[in-house]
Design a protein that fits this description.
The chain is α/β, with parallel strands linked by helices. It is 44% helix and 13% strand. The structure holds adenosine-5'-diphosphate and magnesium ion.
Length: 523
Amino acid sequence: MNQKKNVVFSFLGTNLDRGFDERRWEKWRPTVSLCQQEEFLVDRMELIYQENFATLVERVVGDVRQVSPETEVVERVVKIRDPWDFQEMYELLADLCRDYPFEPEKENYYAHMTTGTHVAQICLFLMVEARFLPGKLVQTGPPRGRVAQKYPGSGEVEVIDLDLSKYDRLATRFAKEQVEARDFLRSGIATKNVAFNQLIEELEVVALRSTAPVLLTGPTGAGKSQLARRVYELRESRTSMEGEFVEINCATLRGDTAMSTLFGHKKGAFTGAASDRPGVLRQAHKGILFLDEIGELGMDEQAMLLRALEEGTFMPVGSDVPVKSQFQLIAGTNRDLRMGDEFREDLFARINTWTFELPGLKDRREDIAPNLDYELEKFAEREGNAVTFNKEARERFLKFAEDAGTEWRGNFRDLNAAMVRMGTLAPQGRIRAEQVEKEMGRLTRSWERGGDDDGLGDLVEGEIDSFDRVQLAHVVKVCRESKSLSEAGRKLFAESRKKKANPNDSDRVRKFLGKFGLSFGEL
Ligand SMILES: Nc1ncnc2c1ncn2[C@@H]1O[C@H](COP(=O)(O)OP(=O)(O)O)[C@@H](O)[C@H]1O
Ligand SMILES: [Mg+2]
């Protein structure tokens, strides 16, 4: 088989290829050096130059002939007004390529990138990239080190195939970075759950490319808060986000202070406002604001938040000067915001651009084992003592943990707590079947009592009817949100008290709690 010929398109380097006297042989001249390479034979050189450089071309052509008699040089004189004019240069090369009798079966084509104006180089690159010039790029460089002394003028050559090496390497690198980002969002845990991994893949793209609000939904303990923080950390490391991660749980925002915590206040706006306060929206400027349990936000706060998202401005309490803040919102919720009428539809629409639903642990059974190992590692890191399961204990615990009947109401929070308890109680850092049995009992009892979901937790001893449980849970919740028993009473009996001259609602609440052995104070 006949070897294919190498054909190089090269601009005459009016500076780099210059040199008329003997000393030019000690100088690196790209076009001449390209024809001096032992491993790279140039069969034909298409040498492009402007007409006023005829003398230099003559010298360069003569020298090429001398160093490489096999090379045929085709002189291509071009009329070009301004070699720095992009349009002119592009058209010149496009015309040249269109008219050129390329024969890729017989010849390999190269575009020499080292000479010519930067505009000429860019246009050559574009020709190759668009396949107008069906070839590769070739780059030459001055000689380095020892070789330089032996072949003073020859320099170095590198061939770049846009179809292969460079693009491939870039693509590989990109893919690697993507994998790293996903791994990071997964906290380095080798998760196997398909739904969760798909979620992470999408979130990775969104986290790096979008500043639109992100909504994370899912049951308590599914990892919403942790994921929000990870998104921030990923963003910060990749795109050097300037602002901070600011986190607030909307369920803790009550009454007058809610507005001021979120939007800030002016000094003297109300009693107790001793100085200006920026508020979390402003604090999150150029960063991420994580509003956890956003469903608990009051109506007024929702309206103000919507305005802040749409216009980028809001009013601090007691101020008539709007404040600007540019932040990305991540919202968390464990309830469906479309249910009931406590959440504004327009705000929901605004934050619903990117919604990610985190599955609970019982829908991620295949991830329990990897999480177990992760928890053990974390425990060891924190406590400075390695903890391991013995074989029997591990099998016993996994069987229980992966069982379809196991509730995992608090999800990762429960798994976490279970591991901490077992790790702490393990004699000599070894978790035995005995600890596992005890822990299984503890978990099951806590779920029977209602787990974390209704907020009753350890409050009530023994069994109570679900009839009472629901009512009690609500009363406990309202009490916790109120500063005093009478405030709780006013809220709980808001309707009936209107009709009474002497409302005794505090008393009614006290008595109700008393039935379950509870008091306002301990809540
Ligand atoms: N993917 C996960 N794997 C293991 N533990 C997790 C994971 N996500 C969260 N956790 C842990 O579970 C606990 C609850 O997570 P969190 O993000 O607070 O849940 P949420 O905000 O959904 O209630 C935290 O201690 C957290 O470190
Ligand atoms: Mg949370």
